[in-house]
Structure formats: C-alpha cells, structure tokens
Amino acid sequence: MIEVRDLHMHFGGFRAVDGASLTIEKGSITGLIGPNGAGKTSLFNCIAGVLTPTSGQVMFDGTDITGLKPHELFHMGLLRTFQIAHEFSTMTVRENLMMVPSDQSGETLWNAWFGRKQIALEERALAKKADEVLEFLTITHIADEKAGNISGGQKKLLELGRTMMVDAKMVFLDEVGAGVNRTLLYTIGDAIKRLNEERGYTFCMIEHDMDFIKQLCDPVIVMAEGKVLAEGGASEIMKNEQVIEAYLGTGLKNKPKKETAQ
C-alpha cells in the first residue's frame, strides 16, 4: 500500500532521513521502532505531507504522493495522528468527531443563511455516526465532556475516532501509547486490532513500548540514523544483533567474554 523509495530529509547538514526504503503492506499493522533521533517521525512527516522530502519518492496504492499536502492525502484516505493529541479543547468529544468530515454544508455562508434544513439533516447524520464511533471505542460516557478535560489516553482514543469519521485506508500512529495507563492502552490496542480485522484499516505505528508492539505488529521495521536497519517479526527483531547495538550502543557479540559471563 505504501512504498518509500530512497527517501531523504535533510535539515541543513543534518540528515534526519538518509536513504530510507520500505514497504507497508495493505491490511498490515506495521511497527516502526528505533532509538531517539532515528528519523521515525521525520519519515512519518514526509509520508503524511507535513514535510516535503529533500529527495526520494513515496507511493500510495500505486500513486506518487511525494510532496502532497496533508489535506490532499486526507481526501485519498491517508491520515496520521500525533504524539501530542490535537483536540478542539472547548468542544465536546462528540463535536470533535463531527468536525472531521470535509465539505459540510454549514461551511459556506450561503448555506448558513438559506440551507439551514440541509445543515440540520447533515448534523443529525454526523451526530449518529459520531455516537457509533464512540460506542465502538467504548467511550460513550465522555461524549458530552469538553475534549480539553479528558485524560491523555482518552484523547488518543478520540484521535483514533477521528479516522473513523472518514473513509480512512492508511493510518499512521505516532506513539499512540505514550503517557497512557495500561488499562486504556489495552482499550486502544483492541480498537486498532478491530479496525484492522473488521474494517480493513492498514496501520503503521511508531511506538517505544515493545510489549505493545509485540501484541499488535507484524512486521516490525527498525530505523537507525535515518536508515532502515532491519525488518521482521517482533521476536526476531528483538534478537537481532544490529538492533541491540542501535538501542544499547554495543552489540552483545562485541562485549568482553568475562563481562557477558557475569
């Protein structure tokens, strides 16, 4: 579904992404891991249109999307969430969901004056869909809460819910588990798995919680220093000497024998 070809993202002399190439298969939940500064978020931002890559190519369902803006990708079904949730804090959780679909009748001044009946019909349909999303995510109890007042984990669920208000095909999740308690993390993981299995969503997720990665992701792609270092199943990746070296600074094979024996 996504093919990244020799992607580079340079900031002056700093190469945040340095020739990364990878494929995200349709219907997968792909994990993207690596030490801090590996280039994971910069890669996400290049794919999702937040940054224009210095060079390279990004393909989505066979279409070249390199350099397209987030709103253009949104209409193609490619969405991303952020490590820090971006909610409308003074609006309710339900209203946050209702804001997502584009080209609503109420967005034009003419309809605001002369199309009120159409706007009311659309709002009822959007409210119904939002309530279905809230039920799917098991957060109906916070539907009327101001989004700024809910917990960090609930905000992550709200961001996931936004992708359900449109016809998302590919969703990039940036540290969806960061700062989330284990109970809510389980709820988020269950929702991701159900969206994948029941609704055909394809996911790629940056995450540092390896237990969460092992629970959800296959395959797992490892980045280091702006490049793709390894790819495979979670258990296989955790035993990879290059991955150990990237995370810990030295591989087990390079340690003195008497040190490893202790």
From TrEMBL:
InterPro entries assigned: AAA+_ATPase, ABC_AA/LPS_Transport, ABC_transporter-like_ATP-bd, ABC_transporter-like_CS, BCA_ABC_TP_C, P-loop_NTPase
Q: Which residue range or ranges hold the ABC transporter domain?
A: 2-250
- Give one GO term, molecular function aspect: ATP binding
Organism, as annotated: Celeribacter arenosi
Xref: CDD domains: ABC_Mj1267_LivG_branched
Organism superkingdom? Bacteria
Protein name per its UniProtKB record: ABC transporter ATP-binding protein
Q: Which UniProt keywords apply?
A: ATP-binding, Nucleotide-binding, Transport
* SMART domains assigned: AAA (SM00382)
